[in-house]
């Protein structure tokens, strides 16, 4: 190699090192974010470059993994794509206040197993709430309110045993409120850590189940208002001693109000208006925390207004209009806190004492007392005139300056572009909302929160308080003004919106429970004033870095051009002429079958890689269905630009698949390696992965017979690789997502990107960097880095246990091998495996199950020497199939030939609640310990 070539290579290596050091975000997360952004017509302006963790707005990371995605109020438009599952370490996801986000929520959201907070408030999402959300068992905060979700409340939400905040209000949900039953179905009664059930303003029907409430709950707010619920108030609600706010108004509830509600000593507000309640007025004597009571528009009756109306110590407002209450309103000894009594449209005949009425707003219009002579002049007989409040936060001892047409003067008299939205209270514990003291408390609490969180806010302004006639909620316009600038940057907006969407801001008690509906903020494009000097160093550094990069890139480019010209001279002779000839790529593939496809060919076969031809996706990219000129269907696996495997691994998969031919191995038809693309062309496998079938996603019923035949097919495929391929091949990544099922449900082993050829000199073992998938990984290989065929045997043993239990290899921190070992007792019936075997096969008491599990446990022996070979495994599975009374060499059934059994429709898939599916025909999600 001459001196010039050495210099060029050194420059390339230096450039690679600079870029590698600069990038601090995991490639899976980077690829996932780019895929998300592709589904939006707009994205944050800072989303440029290759390192989201260092500079992208709305991104927070731990080490190299993205843990928080906060993008509220950024005018995002489009849909939430299934690529969200790529961000597997997410703890917080907040896309609130982006009304342009529409469509359905992808089921893949259930794969974010670490998610604790999911906030999609005030977007445009529709369709059903995915069942897969129920698999997010670490979730503590779930806010889906103010969208267009339809369908029923998923029973799977009963899995969210850590949930604190559950808000499904202001949607189009129908059906009943789900509770658990003796058939194992889940329900909301299992959410013992929940403090908030917010489900108002939907179309829920049926009764409020008696089982919904129990004494183990710590609920504070139960809001079921504005639905179509029927029946009576469940007696069980009185057992929730922590309850503070109860809204059941605007429903069709009937019967008497349970007397035992008086046990709710912490209840502050109760709304039962606009229902069909009857009987006597409930007795709230002793409920000394009540501040607001609304029982209007029912058919309650009473000969006299009960004494609790005026005597409860902190009660401010009582609304009993449109009932059948008669007799005398006794105001003697009334509470000093009482501000309003509304008894309009009742049968009140007298007030005692009539003289010296207290300073309480009394409303008795359309009562007999107001039909007496001269009564119309009494203030309490006059219909109150609704005077809208014109409160607006006043200026802070300054004169508002003239501002441009888009700017607004803040209370501190600075022209700026404020962040705006509606602050909405779902409770009305204060009646005289024209009193400025309430708004001053809210303003002060907002400013205290912003200061405590170090958010640069100059001031806040409230205006236009109004009670919404549709929702009966109390609404306030909120404006938040920036400090030391005329506008917020994106970070400021995201922080403010996040505090409000995730209930981090705690308002005064009289305004709680609340929610915020923010507007999009359009002014972040301008640079905040006064920041030029503070960014000078950053700008200079960036310019220097760019110059260095351009110089290095130019030199590297010159070298690349020279190499390209040299390669072009032989392009017509060798289809691999464009294969990179360097130590990172190795020599061109040596094929024994398969063909090279041009990029333009595959683009034509897939209708220009159209969305309609997409049959799978994942962190690696997309899988497309293609049709060759012969009419043959193929599956084309196209690697994403950001997640392409190394050229060596790509070449390995091509070489391996081109030289192996077995009915239990996926057939490679060809590949494409040009124009910066890596694509593999496989035979089309119509029925997806074994994982999909175990989870119920594919709809294929996996009874015991099918599981045995799938196991045998996969074992035979591996045995071929180990003993008949020349040279032998170790797969290194056996797992349920790499076993595919064809139209006859024949198992085919797929994904050879990590496989290793064993030449004669390596027969027995080879030292190699540990690669594979955690949960399936051979511990001896992991510890010694000595790879043998027995490493595949170990993974296959885990797969067998997975087939028997329908549990993930690692589930909630529990390893399937240890769990089977823990319960297994060969001296007992069915080896004491009843608690761990998949119930859908256990109920038929499958023959050979004990031998199957024992074989799986032999495969996962600690030491490789104690494990059987794959040929021996296949032989023993054949004997188990013969024990069942079937021919192990018979073809499997097609999907139309089912083994349906009674109760199949109600079968439960243990995987289902965890939704462990990976999209795509050829998944290649891997964990590679270093």
UniProtKB/TrEMBL annotation:
Q: Which ranges are annotated Basic and acidic residues under compositional bias?
A: 901-915
Which InterPro entries did the record assign?
Kinase-like_dom_sf, Leu-rich_rpt, LRR_dom_sf, Prot_kinase_dom, Protein_kinase_ATP_BS, Ser-Thr/Tyr_kinase_cat_dom, Ser/Thr_kinase_AS
Query: What protein does this entry describe?
Result: non-specific serine/threonine protein kinase
PANTHER family in the record, alphabetically?
A: LEUCINE-RICH REPEAT RECEPTOR PROTEIN KINASE HPCA1, RECEPTOR-LIKE PROTEIN 55
> Which species is this record about?
Phaseolus vulgaris
Keyword annotations from UniProtKB, A to Z? ATP-binding, Glycoprotein, Kinase, Leucine-rich repeat, Membrane, Nucleotide-binding, Receptor, Repeat, Serine/threonine-protein kinase, Signal, Transferase, Transmembrane, Transmembrane helix
Q: Which major enzyme category is it?
A: transferase
Query: Domain of life here?
Result: Eukaryota
Gene3D superfamilies in UniProt: Phosphorylase Kinase, domain 1, Ribonuclease Inhibitor, Transferase(Phosphotransferase) domain 1
Location comes to: Membrane
């Amino acid at each position: 190699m001459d001196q010039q070539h050495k210099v060029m290579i050194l420059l390339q290596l230096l450039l690679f090192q600079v870029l590698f050091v600069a990038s601090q975000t995991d490639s899976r997360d980077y690829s996932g974010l780019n895929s998300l952004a592709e589904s939006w017509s707009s994205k944050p302006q800072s989303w440029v470059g290759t390192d989201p963790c260092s500079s992208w707005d709305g991104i927070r990371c731990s080490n190299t993994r993205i843990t928080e995605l906060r993008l509220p109020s950024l005018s995002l438009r489009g849909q939430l794509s299934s690529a969200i599952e790529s961000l597997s370490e997410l703890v917080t996801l907040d896309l609130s206040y982006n009304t342009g986000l529409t469509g359905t929520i992808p089921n893949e959201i259930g794969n974010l197993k670490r998610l604790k907070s999911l906030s999609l408030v005030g977007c445009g999402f529709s369709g059903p709430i995915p069942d897969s959300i129920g698999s997010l068992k670490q979730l503590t905060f779930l806010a889906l309110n103010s969208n267009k979700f339809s369908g029923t409340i998923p029973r799977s939400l009963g899995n969210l045993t850590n949930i604190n905040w559950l808000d499904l209000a202001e949607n189009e949900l129908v059906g009943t409120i789900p509770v658990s039953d003796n058939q194992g179905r889940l329900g909301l009664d299992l959410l013992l850590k929940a403090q908030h059930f917010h489900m108002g303003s939907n179309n829920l029907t049926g009764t409020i189940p008696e089982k919904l409430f129990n004494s183990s709950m710590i609920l504070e707010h139960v809001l079921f208002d504005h639905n179509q619920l029927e029946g009576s108030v469940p007696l069980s609600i009185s057992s929730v001693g922590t309850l503070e706010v109860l809204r059941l108004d605007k429903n069709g509830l009937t019967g008497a109000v349970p007397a035992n509600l008086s046990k709710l000593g912490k209840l502050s507000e109760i709304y039962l208006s606009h229902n069909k309640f009857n009987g006597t007025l409930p007795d709230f004597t002793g409920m000394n925390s009540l501040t607001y009571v609304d029982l209007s528009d029912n058919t309650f009756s009473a000969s006299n207004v009960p004494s609790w109306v005026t005597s409860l110590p902190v009660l401010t407002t009582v609304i009993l209009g449109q009932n059948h209450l008669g007799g005398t309103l006794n105001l003697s000894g009334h509470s000093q806190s009482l501000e309003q009594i509304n008894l309009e449209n009742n049968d009140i005949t007298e007030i005692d004492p009539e003289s010296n009425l207290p300073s309480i707003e009394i409303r008795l219009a359309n009562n007999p007392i107001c039909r007496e002579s001269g009564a119309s002049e009494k203030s309490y007989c006059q219909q109150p005139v609704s005077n809208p409040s014109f409160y607006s936060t006043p200026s802070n001892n300054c004169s508002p300056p003239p501002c441009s047409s888009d700017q607004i003067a803040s209370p501190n008299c600075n022209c700026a572009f404020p962040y705006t939205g509606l602050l909405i209270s779902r409770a009305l514990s204060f009646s005289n909302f024209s009193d400025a003291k309430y708004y001053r408390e809210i303003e002060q609490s907002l400013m205290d929160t912003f200061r405590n969180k170090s958010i640069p806010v100059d001031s806040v302004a409230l205006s236009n308080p109004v009670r919404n006639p549709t929702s009966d909620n109390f609404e306030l316009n909120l404006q938040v003004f920036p400090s030391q600038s005329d506008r917020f940057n994106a970070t400021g907006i995201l922080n403010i919106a996040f505090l409000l969407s995730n209930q981090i801001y705690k308002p005064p008690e009289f305004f709680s429970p609340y929610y915020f509906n923010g507007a999009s903020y359009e002014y972040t494009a301008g640079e905040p004033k006064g920041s030029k000097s503070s960014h000078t160093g950053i700008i200079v550094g960036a310019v220097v870095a760019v110059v260095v990069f351009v110089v290095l890139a130019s030199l590297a480019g010159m070298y690349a051009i020279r190499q390209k010209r040299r390669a072009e001279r032989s392009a017509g002779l060798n289809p691999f002429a464009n294969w990179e000839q360097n130590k990172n790529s190795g020599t061109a593939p040596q094929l024994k079958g398969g063909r090279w496809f041009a990029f333009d060919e595959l683009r034509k076969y897939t209708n220009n890689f159209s969305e309609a031809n997409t049959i799978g996706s994942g962190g690696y990219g997309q899988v497309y269905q293609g049709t060759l000129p012969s009419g043959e269907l193929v599956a084309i696996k196209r690697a994403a630009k950001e997640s392409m495997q190394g050229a060596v691994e790509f070449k390995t998969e091509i070489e391996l698949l081109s030289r192996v031919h077995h009915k239990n191995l996926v057939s490679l038809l060809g590949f494409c390696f040009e124009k910066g693309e890596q694509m593999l062309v496989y035979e089309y496998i119509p029925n997806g992965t074994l994982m999909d079938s175990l989870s119920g996603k594919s709809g294929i019923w996996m009874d015991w017979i099918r599981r045995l035949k799938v196991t045998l097919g996969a074992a035979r495929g591996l045995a071929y690789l180990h003993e008949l391929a020349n040279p032998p091949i170790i797969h290194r990544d056996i797992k349920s997502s790499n076993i595919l099922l064809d139209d006859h449900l024949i198992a085919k082993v797929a994904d050879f990107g990590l496989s290793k050829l064993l030449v004669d000199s390596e027969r027995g073992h080879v030292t190699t960097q540990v690669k594979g998938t955690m949960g399936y990984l051979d511990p001896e290989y992991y510890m010694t880095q000595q790879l043998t065929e027995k490493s595949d045997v170990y993974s296959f043993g885990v797969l067998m246990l997975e087939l028997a239990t329908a549990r993930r290899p690692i589930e909630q921190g529990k390893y399937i091998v240890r769990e089977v070992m823990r319960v297994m007792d060969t001296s007992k019936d069915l080896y004491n495996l009843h608690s761990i075997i998949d119930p859908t096969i256990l109920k038929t008491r499958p023959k050979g199950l004990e031998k199957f599990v024992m074989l799986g446990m032999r495969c996962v022996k600690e030491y490789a020497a104690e494990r059987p070979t794959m040929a021996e495994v296949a032989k023993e599975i054949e004997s188990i199939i013969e024990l069942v009374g079937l021919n192990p060499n018979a073809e499997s059934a097609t999907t139309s030939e089912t083994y349906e059994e009674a109760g199949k429709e109600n079968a439960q898939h243990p995987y289902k609640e965890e939704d462990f599916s990976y999209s795509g025909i050829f998944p290649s999600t891997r964990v590679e310990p270093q």
